[in-house]
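Why show two proteins at once? Because comparison is the fastest way to build intuition. When a single record is shown, students tend to memorize it. When two are placed side by side, the eye starts asking what differs. So, the first record is below.
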Amino acid sequence: MEDWGTAIWDTASGELLTVTGNHRRGPLAWHPSGDMLAAAGRSQIDILGRDGARQWTLTGHSLGKDEDRRIVDLAFSPDGALLASLSTERTVRLWRIREGACEAAQVIDLGDLMPASLSFSPDGTELAVAGATGPVQIWSVYDVERIRTVEAPEGSPLGVAHLSDGSLVISSYEPAALAVVDSSGAVRARPSPAAARPYGLSVSPEDVVAVSGESDDTVTVWDVHGGQHRDLPPARGSAYRVQWAHDGSALYVVSWTFGVLRWDGTQWSRLQMP
């Protein structure tokens, strides 16, 4: 399809609104205002309006001679002032959004960590970066200094997210595991995810954790405070990426073969495809 790229849906109706044709196939992140969408390719990022119109293209990540280098995660800070982009070149780039512009800011060198995911703390002062070759790194956003590391209780970290109180949720593999680690280092009891490589990770406003597999159809949902957890019926095709709606009313996954699927608490449905 000549116009393949970033697709935007009306989540209330499931209607496809637009396909941008920007040929980006990497991670996505909505700005907290809901007015901008960041869409990554291998080394560049498009900032799009709600209508799909491109506002800026951000460059700076390097491909070098490594054909496997790519941007693997994006996140806006809670106040919307910063965008963080994570690349397998082992860097995080920060981009500052202000006065109708998006400007390159600091670059974080992750050393030997082969990164997989990142997450801003609820107050926006810290950035957590997870990868399979070391502990989770915690960076101060203001002075761009690494302030501590957090070991996963089991396995090698793949996914990281924050609960509303600032605690970290870490998903790991070999063995597959979930953990909640608070600021003191205490680990909260947690279920085992169904996925062998729990890569996709999302937390709802009520601290309900959804975790999906990197290449299978399993999704585990865990209410951290209530303690209940369940494995959802298999998502058709796969459940590579998982994301709660902003109000926690629905869960969305990206399936390699069936597009975008929606879980409404009872069943999966498929959004309209291009």
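Second record. Ask yourself what differs from the first in the token line.
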Amino acid sequence: MAELTTLARPYAKAVFAEASEKGALDAWSADLALLAACVADADMAKVLVHPSLTAQQQAQALTDVCGDKLNEAAKNLVAVLAENKRLMLVPEIAALYEELKAQLQNTVDVVVTSAFELSNEQADKLAQALKAKLQCDVRLTSEIDETLIGGAIIRAGDLVIDGSVTGKLSKLAEAMKS
């Protein structure tokens, strides 16, 4: 995973610089999301790593699948990635790009995993508390994992806050063993 990030980072930075310069952050987000979805498809992945296809043929196959939804700059990115045998990095490039975009816009995506569905009031309170703690705008999404028993796990980038009953029981068991 770290190796993929290292390989993808220069491409993500270059795309981000291009998008910032042209004022096309959202357009590039859409293009990269489309490309990432296509590359993640199992059938397309087989085509993109097929040894008998040239880089141009692989790039053409990917751009054909995306149709006319890609702009010329995105098509050029696909060509460069194909030439360098890096097409499989597109999902990682897209993720890194979104991180750079969020930093610029001073936002953070937060995923709250809880045992039960959060009410709108709970979600709003949590979002406000996280906004104050992280000092940026928060985009909150929630997931349900009934195995947590109670409480919640909050993930905001590298920050993970485990307030679940399962997590607390695990910590207690670990402390008792030592």
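One difference worth noting in the second protein: The chain has a mean pLDDT of 91.
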